[in-house]
Amino acid sequence: RHLLSTVQSSVKRMDRLTSNLLDMSQLESGKMSLIKTDVEIGPLIDELVVLLSAYAEERSIKIEFEAPEEGLSIYCDRDRVFQVIHNLLGNAIKFSDFGGTVGIRLKRANERLRFQFRNTGTGILPDELPLIFNRFWRSKKTALAGSGLGLYISYGIIEAHGGRMWAESKVGESTTFYFELPAGNLPRLNTDHK
User: Is 18 in a helix, a strand, or coil?
Assistant: First the structure.
């Protein structure tokens, strides 16, 4: 059983790496295809919280979700935004102190929605903060594994949607990642099929 579990873990890691390298190639060539629709946020976040709940429980992490109103939506490729939120929420759990809290907040910003993912933890050093969205970048202070592509790809996906992503951090206290995307349920021309 141990050998089988090890093999399965290795296959999952290789599958993730292959998928990340394909995404990186699409982003760099400008050929990432997006199929955009209005996507309601609440059910999307609920699905991801359930998906990552076992991981959060292992670390005694509490996940809180707050939105100014129900039924908020964004105009996006659902699978790609799911990928971004999965990455940000997974990282927030991974880099939180044991027994900490991860907060997910939504806020209206004109005709956009702003997502905020805040975790309690050691934070990111000021000289490292400008580097976090670079491909293959990983902090020297952590031994936690990763390809160094997750944030790079997430940033590229949000940019491909015409959005923006950034981060703020207080060393020894918290880190917060943000991204903004066009709000859903708005009149638009039927030409947005990148």
Answer: helix
- Give tens-digit pLDDT for 19-71: 656 666 777 777 778 889 999 999 999 999 999 999 999 999 999 999 988 88
Helix, strand, coil share of the chain (percent; to 5) = 40, 25, 35
In 3-state terms, what secondary structure has residue 58? helix
Task: For the chain, report the end-to-end CA distance as a whole number of angstroms.
Answer: 45
Model pLDDT, residue 30: 72
State the maximum Cα–Cα separation within the chain, in Å, rounded to a whole number: 55
C-alpha radius of gyration, the chain, whole number = 17
Q: Where are the alpha helices (DSSP H) in 64-128?
A: 78-94
Pseudo-torsion of CA 94, 120, 89, 153, nearest 10°? -80
Are the C-beta atoms of residues 150 and 165 closer than 8 Å to each other?
no
